[in-house]
Amino acid sequence: MVPYMPFSKVGVGFIRGTQVFNYQHKRTLVNIRLKWVKDRALDAVVTAERDLKAACVLVSIISSSSDGCLPIYHLTCHRGQLDLPYDLKVSTFIRRYPSVFLESHVLDSGGTRVPCFNLTPEAIKLHQEESNVVHQNQSDILNRLRKLLMLTRGWKLPLQTIDQLKWDLGLPYDYQHSVIPHHPDLFSFISLPDDRVGLKLLSWDDDLAVSQLQKNSAIQQEEEDVRSGCLAFPIGFTRGFGLKRKCMEWLKEWQSLPYNSPYCDASHLDPRTDESEKRIVGVFHELLHLTMQKKTERKNVSNLRKPLALPQKFTKVFERHPGIFYISKKCATQTVILREAYDRQQLLQKHPIAELREKFAMLLRKGLLDRSKGLYKKSPGDVFEVDPSKNIVVDNISDYRSSFKEDSENDLLYEYDSDEQHDPC
User: Which residues form the PORR domain (predicted)?
Assistant: First the structure.
């Protein structure tokens, strides 16, 4: 990523307006489209976490079982939560990572061997450490969920929508049972008009209704801009982006428009104006700041149009503002990343949960490396150990065979253009 724009304050990536520009409060939406340019550093961030979420979900599921071991047919029932490619078996995925999962076999009623999986000591240790970190940071995690609900109309969201974001927000896998019931003063399960179950915030907190941009601006931007409410977003582009003069002038003008807090009512804004677009950018700027790693898959937010009171095609802001958001097309999906949060591949401010996930990613990579060296390849001399008390046959070493598919470089940029393609909230 190139340094922040040269006409910003030193060390702070803000494009600010000057007296040269004179514009009306309700300026119509300018039809400018900025090109998408690959950012290899941010693509590497996504690629490095290719299977991290799925592996962590499986670890949570296995850990929640009574004996810490589950047959494959139980794990397959959770496939929808793993976001695996449709042609990849759950068992094949698990066998990619022998540093995390151990395979054994249980005999069914017909005497057929059924694969079962438990966790390695290293994975158990990391999961216990994660539980401790979540407990220590429970107040922070709760506030992230509260702020998410405060962004929405009516302070409520379907559980299905929250489930799509729970990994990014740092919520425990079983937050509906382990977190929400312990805070009846904050949350309530409700029945939505479409018969789905939702979660409602019971009270507003003015102290939480301050966006990250407002907090940063109080320190980094000119006092005059803060008083006028014309706050500017940090901007940075991929090296070689080549922003044209016309686009630079539009961007300066756009940055100098009034900033409407995502926690304030914006029903007075005309959705056909640049000021309304700046408010939409502010909503997702804040939403990404609520996530642990300042990124999320585009599909996770494509259902938020109605809860966030946004216009049609609202995700177009990701393409129109590539200096604020980067869309990575790695791993057969689109991941929206907040540029300001990263210095090349490094997350600038790491939450303890994000640090723990880095450790888990390292453990996954270790398993892949060891497997490539043949350390987990079964030899003809291997025998089976039988545990007669549980009628389980345990392999000394399992055969891990899997293949990786190269990422498609097809243009996925418009896969989620229309939020109406998904179930409305």
Answer: 37-367
| Contacts for 80 with CB less than 8 Å, ≥ 6 apart | none
pTM of the model: 0.81
Residue 16 — φ and ψ, nearest 5°? Answer: -115, 150
Is residue 102 within 8 Å of 59, Cβ to Cβ?
no
Does 118 reside within a domain?
Answer: yes
- In angstroms, the Cα distances linking 170 to 83, 133, 159, 186 are 17, 10, 15, 18
For 124, residues 6+ apart whose C-beta sits below 8 A from its C-beta are 63, 68
> Would you state the structure tokens that stand for residue 149, as one six-digit string?
């609900």
- At 25-58, the pLDDT tens digits run 455 666 677 788 899 999 999 999 989 999 999 9
Task: For residue 229, tell me if it sits in a domain.
Answer: no
How many domains does one find in the chain? 1
Rounded Cα distance between 53 and 265, Å, is 34
DSSP string spanning 283-307?
HHHHHHHHSSSSEEEGGGTTT-TTT
